[in-house]
């Protein structure tokens, strides 16, 4: 069997068969290396799919190479050396297209016949070694095309003139070959479908490292020392030549065995098994390919060690003298390693020779790493020893992982810093799916989603719940989901019966070492209502003027995350804090006392916050949590004050159903109090906002029947609500009477803002009945009052009414001016519901004057706001 250099020499001598087999062998090596390393074959395929086997003579015209994937997908590969012309006049290229078309038409051969190609799982690949050809343009075009909207012009995937020419030539060549193969014209849908599975790829084999074999070898021989990958390349190349000669198939396991057999020992290898499954993390992308000193920081369970090991494998080619990982024990059972213990262990692992002339091991360690190219992973590090372990010069590199922020090191320019948080939702789902059988997910999709949400994007949590699923294959996912929904059992799910396989135990390693003031702050924060605390809330809760300093120290220990809205604690860390906080009565009383302080603080601020122009989503979440805590603990006065401030903000954000839930909760304990009619009135408004007009009208009419006739002002407010419900449901004639009565009573009682509210409603109903000029005058009068009082919500409603009436009068230009002014205010106060509604009204007006571009922009913005709010607005 000839070696690669012999085959290269032969292929340059002009033998077409020899050249074809030589290039085919190299193409085989490229994907065989991916198979042995457990890598995805790229090509825009599923990142979780792996190569199961590589072979040839697959039973159809595309017979150069084939790849079978673990998810049932298939890749057909035409290996075409010297394919310099990608045009219809090239017989070589034309033949490749004929074979691609035949494979597309016939589909994938299976035991039962053939199946159609699947866009997401299959590829038809033409692989060439020719550089500088149109393959460069077409390769990027195919990649963009797979994410290209199907109804957009195909030419838009080409970003320059050269790309458009290459695409045109390809379309013409495919159309001609299609006619020859099928006797029919190629439809646009057939062309697009074919292009989505087609790939033309230029492969560079000028260096064996181009096929990634050095990294591949490191994966396959964890018990051996590394070498530069040449023997592994030779082994796979010989298998590739054999495949070309006898048309064979080779499993990934077979290929791995031959790479191991070809390997020779060199250097030091002392890494754990490569993490599996491992998903790429977007925040790590800038660090994946360029070795340098790197700190990987993150909270417990964030995946720091897994990323450190993965990087060590990926960077291994750059460090021929070896790769070593040592656990410094910064967090966990027992004490951390001292500097002397760490250095002694590293010297032993790196097989450093003794030096009688220099018994100082630290000095010997630095001479060793500074004279060689070593990669050292200092895993689970505290702050104390890592700085002394960094090389001062030379080509060695250190990766540090730990829960600390390593404040003394992050300022050094030669050290990169990466903080790992939780996984984004799509990556989290992919990781959990790697642990759970797809059939179980398909049968219990809703339970799977609940489990995914409960894990909160924490990699360790998903690994542990994945372990539970695997060790109990007959346990329904719904049972796990129910345990995760129950606060008393949630942490039990993340418990695999071993000391280090317990999420609570892993969290404890960070908490147990906290000094008393930080431990108190951790327990108080974990037991406080709400997802975050602002600086003022933290001071009230912790009773410290510089409470944020304590919270920032917890953030440095990765127990909190600091953001623009304050400090947040992961839900599972919070569950652990609650578990610890309820362990004894004294701690429970300590937390309850602090929470009552916080609740009273929120209740005291409620009137002020109610008058604020806008609330952030974080404000709403904080006050909702405080309300629920107060109601649950029986602090009705505080809960009512907070709810009063919340209701309108929930209306604005499209959460009217939540408002109804709150009001229904409060009406029972408020029975017989002065506040009850007020909250019943708010409930009727909420029913109207939910489109339940009849219920809303009946509810407010009951309030009016029960209300003391002497309470004139409250009766006028209820009448006003009834008028709005009647008007909204199309009964404007009846609404006008209630509006006029409300205007008179509000005027006589000197409540100008409410008088203006009723005037605007009166104007709207007058306009709805065709009395446009009268309606316009009422709305303008309302707008003047609200502007003077700086009541932004009502003023914006007035402007919207004025705009609508002007549109009915044919004054479209004036209408658009008022719509813009209304939108400005609605956006300022965060009134999403009315912003969306006014945008749609403005879009209709723009369409009527022929400004279709702005009309479409307004509709898109309105749709996006509506989508963000959901369906209960």
From TrEMBL:
Every AAA+ ATPase domain range: 290-426
Highest taxon, organism lineage: Bacteria
Matching InterPro entries: AAA+_ATPase (IPR003593), P-loop_NTPase (IPR027417), TPR-like_helical_dom_sf (IPR011990), TPR_rpt (IPR019734)
Name of the protein in question: Tetratricopeptide repeat protein
């Amino acid at each position: 069997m000839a070696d690669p250099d012999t085959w290269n020499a032969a292929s340059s001598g002009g033998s077409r068969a020899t050249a074809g087999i030589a290039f085919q062998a190299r193409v085989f090596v490229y994907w065989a290396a991916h198979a042995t390393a457990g890598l995805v074959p790229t090509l825009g395929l599923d990142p979780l799919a792996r190569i199961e086997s590589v072979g040839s003579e697959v039973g159809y015209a595309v017979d150069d190479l084939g790849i079978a994937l673990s998810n049932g997908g298939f890749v057909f590969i035409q290996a075409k050396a010297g394919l310099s012309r990608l045009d219809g006049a090239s017989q070589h290229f034309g033949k490749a297209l004929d074979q691609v078309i035949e494979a597309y038409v016939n589909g994938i051969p299976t035991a039962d016949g053939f199946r159609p190609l699947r866009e997401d799982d299959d590829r038809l690949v033409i692989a060439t070694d020719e550089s500088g050809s149109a393959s460069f343009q077409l390769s990027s075009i195919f990649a963009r095309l797979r994410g290209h909207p199907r109804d957009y012009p195909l030419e838009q995937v080409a970003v320059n003139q050269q790309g458009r020419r290459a695409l045109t030539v390809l379309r013409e060549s495919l159309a001609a070959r299609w006619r020859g193969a099928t006797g029919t014209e190629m439809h646009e849908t057939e062309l697009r479908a074919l292009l989505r599975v087609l790939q033309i790829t230029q492969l560079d084999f000028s260096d064996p490292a181009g096929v990634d074999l050095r990294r591949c070898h490191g994966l396959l021989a964890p018990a051996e020392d590394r070498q530069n990958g040449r023997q592994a390349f030779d082994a796979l190349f010989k298998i590739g030549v054999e495949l070309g000669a006898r048309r064979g198939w080779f499993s990934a396991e077979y290929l791995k065995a031959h790479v191991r057999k070809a390997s020779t020992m060199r250097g030091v290898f002392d890494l754990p098994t490569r993490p599996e499954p491992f998903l790429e993390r977007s925040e790590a992308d800038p660090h994946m390919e360029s070795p340098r000193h790197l700190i990987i920081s993150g909270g417990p369970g964030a995946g720091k060690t897994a990323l450190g090991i993965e990087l060590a494998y990926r960077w291994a080619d750059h460090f021929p003298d070896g790769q070593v990982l040592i656990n410094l024990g910064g967090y966990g059972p027992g004490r951390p390693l001292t500097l002397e213990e760490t250095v002694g262990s590293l010297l032993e692992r790196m097989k450093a020779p003794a030096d009688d002339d220099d018994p100082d091991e630290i000095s010997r360690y630095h001479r060793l790493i500074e004279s060689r190219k070593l990669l050292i992973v200092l895993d689970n590090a505290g702050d104390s020893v890592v700085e002394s372990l960094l090389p001062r010069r030379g080509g060695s590199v250190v990766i540090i992982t730990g829960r600390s922020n390593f404040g003394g090191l992050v300022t050094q320019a030669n050290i990169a810093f990466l903080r790992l948080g939780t996984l984004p939702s799509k990556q989290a789902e992919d990781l959990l799916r790697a642990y759970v059988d797809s059939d179980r997910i398909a049968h219990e999709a809703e339970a799977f989603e609940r489990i995914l949400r409960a894990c909160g994007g924490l990699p360790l949590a998903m690994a542990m719940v994945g372990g539970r699923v695997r060790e109990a294959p007959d346990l329904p996912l719904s049972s796990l989901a129910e345990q995760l929904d129950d606060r008393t059992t949630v942490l039990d799910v993340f418990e695999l019966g071993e000391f280090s396989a317990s999420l609570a135990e892993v969290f404890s390693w960070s908490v147990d070492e906290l000094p008393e003031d930080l431990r108190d702050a951790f327990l108080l924060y974990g037991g406080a209502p709400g997802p975050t605390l602002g600086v003022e809330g933290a001071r009230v809760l912790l009773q410290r003027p510089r409470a944020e300093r304590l919270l920032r120290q917890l953030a440095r220990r990765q127990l909190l995350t600091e953001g623009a809205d304050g400090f947040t604690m992961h839900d599972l860390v919070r569950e652990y804090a609650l578990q610890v906080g309820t362990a004894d009565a004294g701690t429970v009383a300590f937390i309850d006392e602090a929470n009552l302080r916080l609740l009273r603080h929120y209740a005291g601020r409620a009137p002020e916050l109610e008058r604020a122009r806008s609330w952030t989503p974080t404000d709403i979440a904080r006050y909702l949590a405080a309300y629920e805590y107060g109601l649950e603990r029986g602090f009705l006065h505080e809960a009512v004050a907070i709810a009063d401030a919340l209701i309108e903000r929930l209306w604005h954000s499209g959460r009217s159903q939540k408002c109804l839930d709150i009001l229904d909760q409060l009406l029972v304990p408020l029975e017989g109090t002065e506040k009850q009619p007020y909250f019943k009135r708010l409930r009727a408004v909420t029913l109207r906002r939910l489109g339940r007009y009849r219920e809303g009208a009946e509810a407010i009419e009951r309030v009016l029947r029960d209300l003391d006739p002497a309470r004139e002002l409250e009766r006028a407010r209820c009448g006003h609500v009834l008028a709005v419900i009647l008007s909204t449901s199309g009964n404007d004639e009846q609404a006008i009477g209630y509006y006029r009565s409300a205007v008179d009573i509000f005027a006589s009682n000197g409540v100008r803002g409410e008088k203006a509210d009723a005037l605007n409603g009166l104007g709207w109903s007058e306009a709805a009945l065709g009395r446009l000029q009268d309606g316009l005058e009422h709305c303008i009068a309302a707008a003047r009052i609200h502007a003077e009082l700086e009541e932004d919500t009502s003023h914006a409603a007035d402007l919207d009414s004025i705009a609508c009436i002007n549109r009915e009068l044919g004054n479209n230009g004036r209408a658009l001016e008022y719509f813009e002014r209304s939108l400005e205010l609605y956006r300022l106060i965060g009134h999403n519901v009315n912003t969306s509604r006014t945008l749609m009204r403005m879009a209709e007006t723009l369409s009527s004057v022929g400004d279709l571009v702005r009309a479409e922009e307004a509709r898109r913005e309105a749709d996006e706001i509506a989508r963000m709010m959901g369906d209960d607005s």
